[in-house]
Amino acid sequence: MINFLNLKQINTPYAGELKEAAARVIDSGYYILGPEVRSFEQQFAEFCGVKSCIGLASGLDALVLILRAWKLLGKLKDGDEVIIQANAYIACVLAITENNLKPVFVEPDAESYNIDVSRIRDAITPATRVIMPVHLYGYASPMPEIMQIAGENNLLVLEDCSQSHGASIDGKRVGYWGDASAFSFYPSKNLGALGDSGAATTNDEELDAALRALRNYGSKERYYNLYQGVNSRLSEMQAALLSVKLKHFWPEVECRRSVAERYLAGIKNPLIALPLVASREQHTWHLFVVRSKHRDALKKYLHDQGIESLIHYPLPPYKQPAYAEMNHLSFPLNEAIHNEILSLPADPSLSEADVQLIIDACNKFEG
Asked: What gap in Å lies between CA 160 and CA 167, rounded to an integer?
């Protein structure tokens, strides 16, 4: 079986460096918000081209705490609306509703799967305060256009960069564009830790200070609590491991891009629609997602050929049992996408033979 993602194989080349980093943390005696966290925060802020990175326990926490900080700073209030694409992962919606805000869904673009910019203006109401573009599958959303709309309407922009580390437009990487950005370092991400972890990035010093307090029980000074905060701190261990992974980030992305380019050139089956890409720098291929009206048959066929594929995602957030009050909503294009999408392996450790086998299998599929 060709696995969809083999994390052990991906991390094996760096095993020695990862073990050295772990030993360094163990021997240091600093285990919470110490030098490893500070070092990684500085490295990742520079990577994104921003002033500040705040290490957190997960990507979901990054989304939740950014919105919460904006409320504490008086930029948002209960009931304000957040515009988001209807095919976003449920974590985005959880962050919105956790803060007593209202998600306003719009259809995604049929080709990029990111938010359809042409629909954002129509979704803006007097209650709109935030646009949350999700750079889905590793493809950067059209941020210049989104920032223009936000500026014209005095809206905040929160980028969800959890799948798109390193993707860029006009030389500016995701995490740079918005008023704030959220990243996940879940192990399967292009920049993946060896456990849960995440971060927020921003150029706003006031937001930076609020987030640093919120992640640490609401405390700016030990034992004095300014806010009703949480415990959401990037661990020293994960920060040390992420510093190692960041050193090797671009070679892995180039492997992903090479796999994707071979798929784009080699898969020529009219039953399988391939993703479209505006520019090479704009996509880091966290996932290679195709569409087929025969998706379930294609998935079974590939499995029978020894190829694992996954669906990202089978059910939109507004159709989930967790949001029964939203189940009446309908976005026909989005629902068609959810019924047709299938992710092929984009593992940077795939061999050339594995990639060719996947291409050949896709081309032989007959529905």
From this structure: 12
Nearest C-alpha neighbor of 358 from the set 339, 340, 344: 344
Which residues are CB-neighbours of 329 under 8 A, at least 6 positions away? 105, 318, 319
Mind listing the pLDDT tens digit for each residue in 69-102? Answer: 999 999 999 999 999 999 999 999 999 999 999 9
Please provide the distance, in angstroms rounded to a whole number, between the alpha carbons at the two ends of the chain: 21
pLDDT 10s digits, 320-332: 999 999 999 999 9
Contact status, residue 127 vs residue 103, Cβ threshold 8 Å: no
Residue intervals in the chain for CATH 3.40.640.10: 7-106+113-247
Residue 239: both structure tokens together:
């920060």
Look up residue 131 and give its DSSP letter: E
Phi-psi sector, 223: left (phi>0), alpha (psi -120 to 50), beta: left
Backbone torsions φ then ψ of 95, nearest 5 degrees: -65, -40
User: Helix, strand, or coil here: 253?
Assistant: helix
The domain defined by 249-364 folds into Aspartate Aminotransferase, domain 1 (3.90.1150)
Dist. CA 104–CA 82, nearest whole Å: 6
Dist CA 356 CA 324 (whole Å): 43
Whether the bond into 313 is cis, omega within 30 of 0: yes
pLDDT tens profile 264-317? 999 999 999 999 899 999 999 999 999 999 999 999 999 999 999 999 999 999
Residues 6 or more apart whose Cβ sits within 8 Å of residue 50: 175, 176, 181, 201, 202, 203
pLDDT of residue 305: 98
Q: Which CATH class is domain 7-106+113-247?
A: alpha beta
* Residue range(s) in the chain whose domain bears CATH number 3.90.1150.10: 249-364
Question: If pLDDT is split at 50, 70 and 90, which confidence band does 188 have?
Answer: very high
- Phi and psi at 244, nearest 5°, equal -65, -50
